[in-house]
Amino acid sequence: MKETLRHCVICGKATKPLETYLLAEGPTSDIVRNVCRACYLRKGREIRQTVKQESEEGFVP
């Protein structure tokens, strides 16, 4: 049986369904996109850094 490949919306890399991660975006996480593992980890790191920076600046309680 042939697997259907999905494409990462960030880098465009083709991935198998088992290698696909879901990345929630938007203020209410209502937008969900398929991404590869590398992009998923990179975006997660960026989000954590942004939250840390904003909390240091007093934007996040």
Question: Would you give an account of this structure?
Answer:
It contains 1 helix and 4 strands. It has a two-stranded antiparallel sheet with strand order 1-2. It has a two-stranded antiparallel sheet with strand order 3-4. The protein has one domain (6-57). It has one helix spanning 37-57; strands at 6-7, 14-15, 21-25, 31-35. 34% of the residues lie in helices and 23% in strands. The mean pLDDT is 88. The chain starts with 5 loop residues before the first strand and ends with a helix.
Compose a concise summary of this entry.
A hairpin with a 5-residue loop joins strand 3 and strand 4. The chain has one domain. The strands form 2 sheets. The chain has a two-stranded antiparallel ribbon with strand order 1-2. The chain has a two-stranded antiparallel sheet with strand order 3-4.
Key terms:
two-stranded antiparallel sheet, 4 strands, elongated, alpha+beta, 1 helix, 61 residues
Fold blueprint:
Layout: E1 6-7, E2 14-15, E3 21-25, E4 31-35, H1 37-57
Antiparallel strand pairs: 1-2, 3-4
